[in-house]
Model the fold of this input.
Amino acid sequence: MSERALIVVDIQNDFCPGGALAVADGDAIVPLVNRLIAEFDHVALTQDWHPAGHSSFASSHPGRRPFEAIDMPYGPQTLWPDHCVQGTKGAQFHPGLDWTKAQLVIRKGFRAGIDSYSAFFENDHATPTGLAGYLRERGISDLTFVGLATDFCVAYSALDAVRAGFSATVRLDACRGIDLAGSLAAMTQKMAQAGVRLA
Done:
């Protein structure tokens, strides 16, 4: 039992209906996620935690609109509406999420010049968050991912987990996607091909 961990990705107000970057039905997964939290001995959460004026915000690039793509020094970057700004209500966990059992909260996207989708690495795929070391020190090798959004932070996290040598399962019923220009189908296929279990 202790080799398993649940990784709860970005169930924050700004990703839920009414939020700045709302995922359709994002809050609908909360009851199921709470049941899963109760079943796991080890629970870690990720929290998008951007400084104001973050480089991934369209508002930081004059003339650019949300959901346009630009090239950053670390590669292509989708521009987003301002969201999950540090200390704001939008950055807080959804009020219905039973998150207090979590032993670890990984904050990501806090470096102003680089975005971070994955629970394991910034978007340069080189700067680690420390999650892999935390899990290895505790002998945890089997990870289950739930949360928001399926085709971005959940998928990037699961793919990086497999690359780092963990076994990864994504509970699709406990995730919701943004589906930007077919991204949901593309990332679901990519996860399957990489050896992520889709449950």
